[in-house]
Inverse folding.
């Protein structure tokens, strides 16, 4: 059951350093009707430019519109809720941690990922640096705060704990605390003894005074294939052009995330999603926090290899990375019927994503002024 669904749709006009429009609904896109599609994000808030690769960048710079797409973003609590909307035909795409993709396929949802935006694993378990918990084992019997009880963080954490010899259904409890400051408050008040969160979420907690000891038990440090955008196999077969267009817009956005000035990406984010800006924070703090979030996210996105040197393909994932995630979830009991890598991810558009003019996009990104 889906507790919360939010809809987001924004278009705006932005200008480059020389006053030239960077995009937004380019003339060819205005002249034709745009195909409306729904993209479901498995977190309830889009509150940082760290999520720009599917949100503020392709919307604000017109990359979706250039592909003939009018993308509405819905936000829900957890990957299971996102996959449910996809399976029931209420959305064309989902974007979230790959644990939701694996469990969806395992439950018979005919879906695949078609672009992997975050290759390295960005989940950690945080405890009070100055508290009594010094080792992961000290958390046995304690409560873990997770963004949502149906999301990838809880699924992966349970699998990791099971590999450590725990029974995660008996040796740990899980409480949904979200990804905002209330989660940190729940931690400080002792409602949870550990927080399980993504890179940019811990950046928010640290900005607000959190001081953490981080646990990344095996195989977390060696995992890849972390975040994908997904669709039904029927869409890949019957309307491949919309998946290609969406993925190509995201590929361009990955270049901008790597090359554009951090402050300009923040400005763009809050123009596209003005409601996500905290009214209680000064401009200086808003920009400082978002810079921390972007830095935390880029650390797991391989910008040097995928953008500046282009020794890896944008949006790709190796079979070894896919198999490692699959095997973790299987050994952890989260999936029952492991499939070969191509059951979870298709590379049919990867070469097209990488035909974009990356050097020109880098130059445009560096010159971005919002």
């Amino acid at each position: 059951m889906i507790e919360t669904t939010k809809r987001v749709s924004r278009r705006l006009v932005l200008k480059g350093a020389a006053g030239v429009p960077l995009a937004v609904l380019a003339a060819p896109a205005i002249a034709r009707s745009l195909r409306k599609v729904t993209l479901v994000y498995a977190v309830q808030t889009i509150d940082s430019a760290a999520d720009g690769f599917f949100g503020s960048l392709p919307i604000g710079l017109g990359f979706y519109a250039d592909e003939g797409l009018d993308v509405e973003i819905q936000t829900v609590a957890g990957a299971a809720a996102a996959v449910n909307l996809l399976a029931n035909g209420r959305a064309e795409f989902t974007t979230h941690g790959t644990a939701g993709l694996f469990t969806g396929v395992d439950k018979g949802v005919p879906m695949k990922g078609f672009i992997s935006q975050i290759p390295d694993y960005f989940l950690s378990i945080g405890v009070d640096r100055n508290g009594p918990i010094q080792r992961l084992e000290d958390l046995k019997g304690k409560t873990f705060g997770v963004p949502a009880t149906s999301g990838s963080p809880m699924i992966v954490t349970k699998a990791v704990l099971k590999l450590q010899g725990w029974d995660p259904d008996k040796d740990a409890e899980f409480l949904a605390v979200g990804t905002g400051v209330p989660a940190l408050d729940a931690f400080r008040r002792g409602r949870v003894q550990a927080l399980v969160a993504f890179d940019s979420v811990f950046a928010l907690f640290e900005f607000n005074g959190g001081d953490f000891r981080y646990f990344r038990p095996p195989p977390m440090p060696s995992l890849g294939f972390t975040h994908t955008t997904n669709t039904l196999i029927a869409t890949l077969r019957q309307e491949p052009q919309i998946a290609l267009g969406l993925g190509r817009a995201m590929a361009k956005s990955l270049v901008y995330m790597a090359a554009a000035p951090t402050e300009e990406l923040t400005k763009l984010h809050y123009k596209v999603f003005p409601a996500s800006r905290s009214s209680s924070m000064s401009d200086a703090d808003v920009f400082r926090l978002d810079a921390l979030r972007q830095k935390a996210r880029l650390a797991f996105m391989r910008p040097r290899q995928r953008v500046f040197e282009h020794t890896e393909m944008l949006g790709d994932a190796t079979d070894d990375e896919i198999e490692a995630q699959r095997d973790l979830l299987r050994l952890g009991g989260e999936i029952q019927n492991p499939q070969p890598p191509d059951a979870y991810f298709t590379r049919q558009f990867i070469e097209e994503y990488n035909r974009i003019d990356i050097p020109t996009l880098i130059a445009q990104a560096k010159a971005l002024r919002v």
The chain has 16 helices and eleven strands. Residues 5-120+225-366 form a domain with the D-Maltodextrin-Binding Protein; domain 2 fold (CATH 3.40.190.10). The first strand starts at residue 5 and ends at 8. The two ends are 39 Å apart (CA to CA).
